[in-house]
Fold each of these.
Amino acid sequence: MEPVISIRDVAERAKVSVGTVSNVLNRPHIVADATKARVHEAIKELEFVRNESARQLRAGASRTIGLVVLDVANPFFTDVARGVEDAANEADLAVILCNSDGDPAKEARYLDLLDEQRVRGVLITPVGAQDERLARLRQRGISVVLLDQRSRAGDRCSVAVDDVRGGELAVAHLLEGGHTRIAFAGGPPGIQQVKDRFSGAKRAMRKAGRDTAELRRFDDIALSSAAGRRIGATIAELPSGERPTAVFCVNDLMALGLLAEASQRGIDVPGELAVIGYDDIEFASTSTISLSSVRQPRHELGVTAAKLLIDEVENDAHEHRRIVFRPELTVRASSAVTTRDSAAGGRVTG
Ligand code: RIB
């Protein structure tokens, strides 16, 4: 068994006192940046882990798994987390919930913390490509499963919905409704789900014989209702002849924010502006104007991902799997254009 690297080893490597290393770990705000950088470099080189993880190494593996999500305030992730917790509880495991806020640095800090806590495994919806960090977790015996994103080439398990197909379903529905000026309301362009949903939206335009350049894109720095309100204000302030007649929002929170902005500005939905979201969270159906949405099986995503992780941790014969669910379109008042949609209950499987 490799000797456990001590805080003293880190201090010697960084040429600082043990107390300084302790400050970097516990009170980083009082340490000069240059010193902090030297200590963190020594920690990385020596692969130092803190005492509590060394204790757990001696006492056996912890009974926890980590779940890192982009936005804990988004009901999509709340429903996914519920599925994770249900599966973890069945396996007598607890869940450590981490909220990255879409910030790569915050996500990295949480991954380091979960490493220190020696969790059995990590479920993550990554902000961007954290390949090096996720690979290092695996090297340290911590399994990783991607949630709401597909892994590449089967290098790890993943559970997601076919977001390209989901984006296509959303815009095909708007095109079938006769809309000619369609907008895409997206979040941070670097997030894979946003990229995939936009790709699907463009595919729907091509299949309808339309130029993808006609799909007018509005981006925001967030995937929140406030972001939806900001994009709604931008759209509302366009000259009427230029304003889109329909908008596909990359998730329901944005769509609900945009609906609120349209309502506040007296814009008729769906008459002047049809709206469709993505996730089909509970609030989509209870909104004042019920929201059409592309459904993601949120609880099932969480259960499935947690079960894959637990199997990888406990089953030596585990084989990686990429599970992709099919999206479903649910048509409601915010985009219904004919009695056909409302009569059919509006559910179309992708
Ligand atoms: O995970 C990124 C986005 O995909 C989240 O905003 C969530 O709503 C899902 O749709």
Note: The radius of gyration is 23 Å.
Amino acid sequence: MTPFDASSRGGLVLKGVPLSPGLGRGTACLLPQAGGGLPVADRKPAADLGAEASRFAAACRRAAAGLEQIRLAVGAAVGTAVAGILEAQELLLRDAVFLDLVSKRIHDKKLSAETAVSEVVGELDHALGQVEDPYLRERSADLRDIGQRVYLELTAGVRQLDLPEAAILVAPELAPSVVATLDPRRVSGVVTELGAKASHVAILLRSLGIPAVGAIPDVARSVPAGSPVLLDAIAGLVFVDPEDHVLREYARLEADLVAHDALLAQEASRPAVTTDGVAVRVAANLGKAADTEAAVRGGADGVGLFRTEFAFDIRGRFPTEDEQAAILRGVAERLAPKPVVVRLLDIGAEKTFPYFPLPAVANPALHLRGTRLLLAHPEVLRTQLRAILRVSGHCSVSVLLPMVGGVEEVRAVKHSLAAAKAELASEGTTFDDALLLGAMIEVPSAALVADDLARETDFLSLGTNDLVQYLLAADRDEPAMSGYYRALHPAVLRTLRSVVLAARRAGKEVTLCGEIAADPFYTELLLGLGLRSFSVAPRQLGVVRHEIRRASVRTATALARRVSSLPTRDEIRAALERRWERCGGALG
Ligand code: PEP
Ligand code: MG
């Protein structure tokens, strides 16, 4: 617990880190996590114990069958070690001792199946954590995974959770697949223990417009289920059971924010041109097809980054070629004639799908990710390329390669692209033979060979969320590394400048699609570094356009030159903050 204001007479105030800005008000709803030691919302005694035990046994059977399907579908592709883990999990789900333990708990303590699973898995997990044998200790992760699978079978996933109106979800951590299913009309906010601003969960929450505060230790125990909560995800505060004067103060702020949003909405129809006449492209980042409408309303100059992972995430299997093509066609037709940049599936590291388990490795962020992973799974790559090509026959789309390390990966994808084109041609399907292909600059090697990549491709896209992490060796998802994960490090600014120059030399466009593109605090600096194309979350389109309209490239260039030569990120930040204060901040 982190009491923030000890003098607060009534409710508790917790201090965390804002992950997705905004204000939220509602009722705390603890998200159950089997074995996670979290209090489960449903602790009511079960009425029919026999029925609960059968429900539990059926959930185990379904979970085991699901695992078997995954193992058979991808086992060969992911190697025997992973297949072995899956098989061991299946065996445990069919293990009489485990089944008996939970059934007995249901009967002895008159518990619902969910609560009994949560308790038993939690206890076994704790016991395994105590043993000396490192092999057995490692099995606790499998156990938690099994608990989670059975739990999700029982609750049929978070979608079926009995969320109150205006729920404030409280959980130690949320998986991207869970966040992808949240309905912003029901979920007024999220409070988590883990979470860093650059994490995919935070990006997703921002794109959904759900205010969120993270990095609150032991949050599940600090916020009682059912208590009224006010979330200030601008300052990073969580008011549990807030007092009246706090509520009044925030009601005023909320009215101000509504007026601010209305002002920004007017920006949609105004051109993003600087005071000295330089036109800047501001496109939208889409996390899923449903974001398209917000992008259109915000006046986006097309889509600069369509993250395709979420269509894969919300299904229990790979989407088919037809499904992928239908999703993309819907987005591209709505935005036509503006172009849509489709990023190939970018998984690996912390982004995985339950049906596509990746080998457990010591350093997942430095293992196969993005394009490299796709090259290792040609069927997945082929299906996605075919889907994009099919849409390119009717709409303006292009392909973006994530996590490119150098020219060889681009060439390998070009090879697959040529093969996919040949197949489609032989089937008589129309496609755009000149489909544009771009590379993301997200790792230092790609930045260093940006000249070659710019020549080899049609455009570049700077993914600063990952570039900062790999350049500075600081995990983007790890709150403890946030002191080192700093976009304003001189190494980052100098790298951005050199990539911009490389693209310019090759006559290719470079877009910045990392999160800093969406933050008005950075806009002037980025213009000064030479960037003329941004791609941002739809809700940030207005504020970034506004910032561009009040900047001058001449002044911005001088600012960028001055701060890039400073030796530390603190000096750079201080210089920008002074400038920001002088200009009166965003919408000043
Ligand atoms: C990036 O790394 O900046 C990026 C846009 O990709 P993602 O955040 O999806 O990894
Ligand atoms: Mg990235």
Note: The mean pLDDT is 87.
